[in-house]
Structures
1.
Amino acid sequence: MKIGVAGKGGSGKTTTSGTLARSIAARSRRVLAFDCDGNPNLGPTLGLPSDQFDEGIPLPHDVLAHIDRDGETVTELSMPLDEILDRYAAAAPGGIQLLTMARAQKPGGG
Ligand SMILES: Nc1ncnc2c1ncn2[C@@H]1O[C@H](COP(=O)(O)OP(=O)(O)OP(=O)(O)O)[C@@H](O)[C@H]1O
Ligand SMILES: [Mg+2]
């Protein structure tokens, strides 16, 4: 099952995503959570301690390969998913694995 949560700023996307992830994991389902916000904060919502969350490594672009297939560009993972999880996922309580897609630079640079 894949669930995507999108919507207007401040409408409760992160709260809803964290609650969904935790309630599905509580039913003994494997949950892989993606935080696609450039200012990510799903980690604390999942109960990840802030020191671990702040150290989280955003996924590098090269985990995706853009392949030309019969004139059409297809995007695929460039390495097995388990390897991506080993390298980049943070382990949140309840067995939830969290991948952070991007992280904006800290403010101050204009
Ligand atoms: N069902 C709800 N009832 C009342 N308050 C809520 C509810 N869901 C979320 N909130 C509160 O609304 C605020 C925004 O929630 P949240 O951060 O989940 O939204 P978001 O859509 O992820 O925001 P952003 O666009 O900034 O990422 C938070 O203070 C949260 O605690
Ligand atoms: Mg949010």
2.
Amino acid sequence: MEVVYIKPWRCQICGETYLGSEAPDRCPYCGAEGENVKSAAYYLEYGKVEMSEQSRKDCLEALRLELNNEKFYEKCAEEAENQISRAIFKRLGKQEGEHAEVFEDMLGEEIELKEEVQIPDNDYDRFTEAHEHEKMAIDLYLAVARRAPEKRVKDVFRAISDVENEHLIMSNTFK
Ligand SMILES: [Fe+2]
Ligand SMILES: [Fe+2]
């Protein structure tokens, strides 16, 4: 019998550990591309990042956006019209939650959303709104990746903008 060795892989963006015989295509937690998931032995702990005032503002805005999207997708999953849209909304919500944690770690603080999140009354309109949310996030994250002076901030925003791009494609495909 062939012996398969299970190894720990760790995502350099969200810090979560994946166990498997091979590295995953994408981080199963935050959705970051596989190149960000390395053998756990090479993992670098960044923790709170020293940042310029602008980057701090950008991270706070990103955190608010992620928390808002997490709530939005959670509600969409609760109200979903079928198992496929439910699965998609659930997965997107979980990934946005992971993204929020990444920004909290970088900032070294947490915030609480006060606003209630409203969702449209059917899946088609929910996917349409999801598309708008993701587009907004991508635009902001790419701008931050360009202007941030800190390498870690650039890397995180670039990796997460790529994930939001995946979300955008998903929200278009299943509409
Ligand atoms: Fe990750
Ligand atoms: Fe996100």
